[in-house]
Fold:
Amino acid sequence: MCAEYGRTGAIAGSVMIPRHLYIAVAALMVVVLGMGLYAWHMRGRAAATPVAAADTRPVAPPTAGPTEQVTLFVAYDDVGVLRAQAARIPLPSVRQQRAEELLRALLAVYLDKNSPHPLPEGSDVRGVYLVDPGLAVIDMNAAFSDGHRSGVLSEELTIASLVQTLSANIPSILRVKILVEGKERETLAGHADLTGFFDVSGVNLLAAELQAGQ
Structure:
């Protein structure tokens, strides 16, 4: 009996795993290893790919409203004057938004490639706030002031153009204050004083003098 048990144990100990099972296990290990290497490679590529910076610029809401004829007072550097120019633009019903669209229409003339009075790229109106009685506060962005050409006439033409365009189309405005990024700035580009208020009647006289010089 012991002899039989020894033979049985010997037979059990010598049982061989089929060859095809070895091959299947080896193939499975190769597949797992390959998937691991692929995942590691993809993580490396993702880490090396630059992430696009989020665009944080404010998006202006689309203008809604009927198209109306307005008068823009456009500066011409070559002769140093303001000239009234008719334009048709969509205007909303809210006074504050109307004021903003008026000035954006004026800036569009200055930002055009054939501009008679070039302004820095990216110049925009951040907002116009109408404060009773008769005060308008224009808030321009930093690009408008930081890149503006320095010079007495150039700066005065810009200010007169903004004030005249606003007051001509919204008659109730009597005074105008210009801010940059919501803050008071000493000058526009080194000359024109921005610390005070611009009296519309005084700017009208200046605009008339400039127009008379045509």
Remarks:
- The chain has six helices and six strands.
- The mean pLDDT is 81.
